[in-house]
Amino acid sequence: MANDFTRQRSAAEALPADLADGLERLRPEAAHAVLSQMTAAEAAQVLIELEVERATRLLERSSPDQIAAWVEALAPNAAADLVARLAPERRREVLAGLPLAVASAVSALLRHPPDSAGGIMDDRFLSVRAEQTLAEGLDRLRTSPPRKSADVAYIYVTDEAGRLVGVVGVRDLLFAAPDRRVHEIMDPQVHHLRVTDDQEAITRQIERYRYSALPVVDARQRLVGVVRITDALRVAEAEATEDMQLMVGMSGEEQVHTRWSAAIGKRLPWLGVNLGAALLAATVVSRFEDTIGRWTALVVFLPLISAVAGNAGVQALTVIIRGLALGDVVRGDAARVLRKELAIGLVNGVGLGLALGLIGYLWKGSLVLGIVAGAAMGLNQVVGVLSGVLVPFGLRYCKIDPAMASSIFVTTLTDILGFLVFLGLAAFALRAFGL
Amino acid sequence: MANDFTRQRSAAEALPADLADGLERLRPEAAHAVLSQMTAAEAAQVLIELEVERATRLLERSSPDQIAAWVEALAPNAAADLVARLAPERRREVLAGLPLAVASAVSALLRHPPDSAGGIMDDRFLSVRAEQTLAEGLDRLRTSPPRKSADVAYIYVTDEAGRLVGVVGVRDLLFAAPDRRVHEIMDPQVHHLRVTDDQEAITRQIERYRYSALPVVDARQRLVGVVRITDALRVAEAEATEDMQLMVGMSGEEQVHTRWSAAIGKRLPWLGVNLGAALLAATVVSRFEDTIGRWTALVVFLPLISAVAGNAGVQALTVIIRGLALGDVVRGDAARVLRKELAIGLVNGVGLGLALGLIGYLWKGSLVLGIVAGAAMGLNQVVGVLSGVLVPFGLRYCKIDPAMASSIFVTTLTDILGFLVFLGLAAFALRAFGL
Q: What is the pTM of this model?
């Protein structure tokens, strides 16, 4: 019985994912030594579970022959992921050391971006011809190489040109009369993906229609692979991680165990952008240095208004980024979302403005200061939610990932406008009341 | 052929998910009218696709008989989700109107929290007894009610007391000699969930071991249900959304189309907490009003240092929250994570500190100001990453969700300590150099 239950429990009952966890805690030399002790199949399974950066460094320490053995032990889509991590020259060496069939399957997958349906799909699937009998189809199922049982829940149906024309459930195939033709019992309507579909489209389709797998067709409607929901789940997790990280100026790929030196390379540039953006806000403050010099109590409220409005903006941003990722926000929803956020900003602005106004009055004993701080807080709530809507939709309009550094942009916008409103009101009050 | 392909395409070729999208854009009365036009099966499918709040309001407008018809048309786990949204009295009325078997299945599921394995699982699954012959097992498969083909990829094996003892792939069942016993070909090692396992444990197991479904056992090891990967994918998406929202002080349940009035109730309280926390930071600034009055250029750098250090803290926080959610961070990793973040904070601190020092010197023409601002920026990077580590681990230590309002806590901590460092250094410089 060669299913995945038994396969996964080799290497003294440890699972590849668990072994990978262990390896990530070792130094590269030690990890490579452990890997070399395993069979090719075991090592290959562990390698694909490792985080990308770690796997790449282990591959760099390995000979092309060793890598070719690992690649051969993997399913083509996993093999392609592994080969994609190699430097171009090393990649050619490894491909040259592989049996022709494996090398060509891997090369075909490498032609698609790794996060497209073509890059995620498994090119091993079961298909039958529409004009075959069910008995022929069943025979096909029986003689196909042993694999995970879940793989055979659906069998896809193609025409003589290899184009996807339908789908048959294994059960329907089993329990109908064996002399009937496949096209008689198949469902001619089959949801499918195109090789060029991106991560988000895949997750959305699989989640929406609740299939355990979706067939993938090329530009000529030919069936070329299958994307399984297990792979879609990984993609969905990676996508959520990426959005969370992109928002705060990170690469989207950093993991907890990523080396600090690699993490700095991803984080520092965005902190530099953040510094530049904050300098813009600082120039606004600088223009009001006189005002602040004459009324130092203002300075106490400056970071306060910035903090709460920034967070209000990031709240709106978070809902929208997630809504875009999950497909809840479609073209034309911008106006509707803007109205909702404006309503929230106005109500929260009144509430928080009154609260801060009262606090300012009681704390510093100045009614004017209370009014200025409260009004600035209230207005800045509106500025916050507006930024939270405009930044992601604006980035998307510019064909940039709407999550990209978005929280940096939102907080900078609220800072700049918030400081202008607050210090502008204060300067006006100073002049008007001759304080 | 009664599989899900055909069923999903009723109601003029529209899919429930698409119809739900449409309904979410209608007013409640109109949406209820549309729902009442559909067959019970169609309406039920659409209802479970709707966002929770919207579905609840539609249910409030419907009669117990109408709801009972919808519930009966759903799989028990989806039915339980629907019934869970009803007020207690209405819930009793609906359950009373259901056939006994349906009512008891739904009630059983309602006993488990909705985000536990017991709440997510489907109680319709195929199982065979270990001592049966394969022919008997196959017969079981043939006579089971028609359902999605994917459901029958694995058949679970139980002993005479109903305890889970193994698993058999459908293919293994099909192509072995029919007079063999199930226990001869079953895999006795079967990964499973307990009814009490939470969302995160489920996602982690399914993703880790790449199964399309996992069996669920009760406290006595009896097989009681199956969690399918399609449901796990939804759970994983919801979990990621929740973490992103919790971090910035939201409920974790808000969607783009959530009504603004409902959204305010979730966001405003946390903005209030944010205001309170920011007031703490403001009292620090207040203590240095004299210093600032004598050296107003300081005020320009105050929000700048706060912004960049806060973001550095949220970067560290994001990696850790996601690492905790995906199970990459385990007990004992805290020290290791802290070392990594400290290294990042030190290097980024030196880089950004030098940059701001130079900028401060060139902009304001004061070497002392450059040194004070640069040193504060550098130190505050370390404060930022420390907060980013300590807040989530601290929350988890207190048995609170580590994401809960964590970015508010991190930015407040960096503000308080950052202002202390910056203004403290400035006050010292004022005294030391008699500026």
A: 0.75
